[in-house]
Amino acid sequence: VPPALIALLTDFGLEDAFAGILRAVIAGIAPQVSVIDLTHQIPLGDVRRAAFTLWQARTYVPPGTIFLCVVDPGVGSSRRGVALIWERYAYVGPDNGAASYLMAGDGPPAAFELTAPEYRLDPVSNTFHGRDLFAPAAAHLAAGLNPERLGRRIRALEQLPAPLLEVRPRQGARGVLLHADRFGNCISTVGVLVDRGDHLALEPWLRQDTAITLPKQGLQVELAGGVTVPLGRQFADVPRGEALAYIGSSGLLEIGVHHGSALEQLNLSEGQPVRLEKRG
Amino acid sequence: VPPALIALLTDFGLEDAFAGILRAVIAGIAPQVSVIDLTHQIPLGDVRRAAFTLWQARTYVPPGTIFLCVVDPGVGSSRRGVALIWERYAYVGPDNGAASYLMAGDGPPAAFELTAPEYRLDPVSNTFHGRDLFAPAAAHLAAGLNPERLGRRIRALEQLPAPLLEVRPRQGARGVLLHADRFGNCISTVGVLVDRGDHLALEPWLRQDTAITLPKQGLQVELAGGVTVPLGRQFADVPRGEALAYIGSSGLLEIGVHHGSALEQLNLSEGQPVRLEKRG
Amino acid sequence: VPPALIALLTDFGLEDAFAGILRAVIAGIAPQVSVIDLTHQIPLGDVRRAAFTLWQARTYVPPGTIFLCVVDPGVGSSRRGVALIWERYAYVGPDNGAASYLMAGDGPPAAFELTAPEYRLDPVSNTFHGRDLFAPAAAHLAAGLNPERLGRRIRALEQLPAPLLEVRPRQGARGVLLHADRFGNCISTVGVLVDRGDHLALEPWLRQDTAITLPKQGLQVELAGGVTVPLGRQFADVPRGEALAYIGSSGLLEIGVHHGSALEQLNLSEGQPVRLEKRG
Predict the structure, then answer these.
(1) C-alpha–C-alpha distance, residues A6 and A67, integer Å
(2) What is the four-CA torsion angle of B146, B148, B149, B150, rounded to 10 degrees?
(3) Using CA atoms, how far apart are residues C126 and C130, in angstroms rounded to an integer?
(4) With an 8 Å Cβ cutoff, are A62 and C21 in contact?
């Protein structure tokens, strides 16, 4: 059995040593455990983005991975700290909805509130639970601790609202734009899509449970202001500098520009509507 | 015994491969040693910030940690390279004061000038001692080298001035603001503070050696321009959008805004006065 | 034998989890392999910068290092994925010229097109070959896979044009500025230089094969607009705030300012001419 892996996800940024101190705490408790950074640059307090990023990463982490996720605008309030255990991975962090897309994808976890004083630093500060509470819990779990030792079993967990997505059998789907990546490609809530040659399958994701199949012939993607972009397979399907929609690497519909930035060129922003529908 | 850990702290940034090349050099010399990044985004040449960050991290690193700290505005001058050895950890880097808060916290180290040609790369460049001098020395130390092999023992080390802090028994303390973190919380020199219920203990830190105890009742925090903020325990003690002072995660007095940025909202900047005193 | 090392170089940035997901994929396939980040902040699609950074790092990585380099503006087109094997290291990534300075430095590699379906994820997306194609190939190689298993042997590889550099025996060299580092020091194509006391040797680098030796006496460095800066050994050779040229840490001529930014102070930019020549 390979040792467990801890995958870090925070909004700490990289200018302070906060992320490094998480690693230091883990190394002190579980020196044999590998740690990877997913990102430390989640926009400040953006729990939805954290939830999305965990969902995006979950397919690619090895079995036994522990997500140590500290996007925690509620630090210094009464929100709980939790360890959530699924078969393939675990989440350690605040109970604030960041794990809700994992739950939607893989069902309800075994959930434990982090209350046991043996598995936290002493004292616990009021502003840095990542260091004092969550990193120790994740490290002990990675070192093999039975999660029942971390605290009492709990049931109701915080949930984010499901992403906006309306699926219309035989017609298509209407969703919204989420964020752009560094390349200016904009991801949307329209998915999960699978390319089946002359059809697109739109499979359930998160709390959306309608599966439909659409003939590609005649499908188009309409953005805000009635702008339409062709549906392609890859960037090179359109000339350089032109926009297209395609199935992104997580199976969601994305808007991109071949050798360019869709975000800037099409003036896109979060929350704008995206329709994948038959022309006319 | 777990293998030693090297903790990196530099002002190299992450756009060039400089920090990665430090890791490459270490991996070539001591492949079994774990390496963590504290941060590579210390403001350019800011030795005081490096000293502070080392002080902040020192409590949380495992025994045997080697801080490889390259904030080195004097590269290409006559400043020395040193290895400083304490019981719990070591510092490898330029002798420019970056280790002086460690010294103030843990006393004088055994100090060695890095002169032995066997433990550096050949040739040594004039601009990248992190790669050619400090990373090899840290890697050899982490692999178990006796520090006496690195070069001759030295005594007088560079020191930074102590942070501005004036402690007044029975009255309080006057310090200054240091920097803000990514969240806009501003750390100050007023500390180290410990919450003792209805009293605050102000314990010695760095070269400040007066310990006092203050009743919390009637204490307030005054900033530049006579602005006062309440002293709280945690963000949720004030309504969203309001400011408070609290004991930060390193024990120093911090100014924050619940779900906001104190830096922006209160227009704070480095060096501004902070008074923790009885009202009136 | 120490286990292989994978060194990551991408233009993914650190705001998304893309770089973290590369590490997750590697950890799933080859958990025992160490991974270091050279940088993830290559300017978007800047294959030349990637090639330069690999060249810069190659001297300092341990034998057996695999460069997993994903600067891939051609993703979603017909460019090939390759594994290139030299004696000391390997390159895995797109065949787009990013490896051409490695080739110029160390000769032609054994080259394999990444076609074997067993060593990629299934399905392979059209936009994230780093995750689906290159990370698995690098991880399998690091775990000991014979590169012949990755796909068919190929010959002609993409090449970048050689950096602009004209060497004039007995006179000097004319090159151009490349990029600046975080400190504002600007690296140029004039090199590789070695300090031989009262002479400078200009040795071949990349496809430049004229070696010359120049007496230092009377040499000067001329920049755009006829600005000249003295040739020094290290920053402290000039007063604070003044500019100089010196042999940088990779052996290339650099322009710097002692305790300042040459980029800003001299208004430098990429492509500007740099002449290392006798005065008058």
Answers:
(1) 6
(2) 110
(3) 11
(4) no
User: Is C17 within 8 Å of A249 when comparing Cβ atoms?
Assistant: no
Tell me the pLDDT tens digit for each residue of C166-199: 999 889 999 999 999 999 999 999 999 999 999 9
Return the residue in C38, C71, C255 with the most chain B beta carbons within 10 A, the one to mutate for interface testing. C38
Sign of the dihedral defined by the CA atoms of residues A85, A91, A94, A98, in that order: negative
What six digits make up the tokens of A130?
Answer: 């990542």
Touching B (3+ Cβ pairs <8 A), the chains are A, C
- Asked whether the beta carbons of A250 and C18 are under 8 A apart, the reply is no
Q: Is the distance from CB of C137 to CB of A256 less than 8 angstroms?
A: no
d(CA B5, CA B20): 16
ipTM of the complex: 0.96
Cβ of C17 and A62 within 8 Å?
no
**Residues with Cβ < 8 Å from C181, sequence gap 6 or more?**
B15, B16, B18, C187
Sign of torsion over alpha carbons A63, A68, A71, A73: positive
Phi, psi of B163 (to 5 degrees): -60, 145
CB-based burial label for B55 (10 Å; 0-12, 13-18, 19+): buried
Amino acid at A66: I
- Which residues 101-160 of chain B have a CB within 8 Å of chain A? none
> What tokens were used for B229?
């903020």
Lowest-confidence segment of C13-27, C138-152, C190-204 by average pLDDT: C190-204
* CA–CA distance, B244 with A40 (Å, rounded to integer): 26
